[in-house]
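Checklist before submission:
- one chain only
- standard amino acids only
- sequence pasted in full

Submission:
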Amino acid sequence: MQPTDQLPFPRSAYDRTAGIVYFARMLDKIRLQSAGKLRADYHANLGAGFDGRCSRFLGIQYATLCKRVQAGGSDEEILQWCFEQGTRPTDEQVLIWNKFMLKRGWRDEDDGSTQELERYKKASNLAHRNDLLTFFDYYEVDEGRKP
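Returned file contents:
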């Protein structure tokens, strides 16, 4: 296995598949893990955290989704499979999902998400970045897609 600093980062959480944020990132993490190229610091949240939320949103067991991803196919094909095997959200449900995910970490003190985001920022030497208000913002900077 390559040293962690040489391994690729997963896709942006902002990337959309059929209008749904985060799904492409989750699939990318599954593919990277299967290829032995997922950074070690991502392993603890596989199937948990946002991955767990996304698979539950689509009504699919994460382990079942992993098997489907490993069988191959595009993000769009796998999402269609999710719709057939699990739940096809309405346009309104996708809107609510996207807005929830896009804002996660911002003013989420009551469930500890804001504090968790601040811990992530501190661990990455980004605690001084007051412009990183959400987890998606944090990923973009921490993974080098945005200065």
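Reviewer check: Residues 17 and 79 are 8 Å apart (CA to CA).
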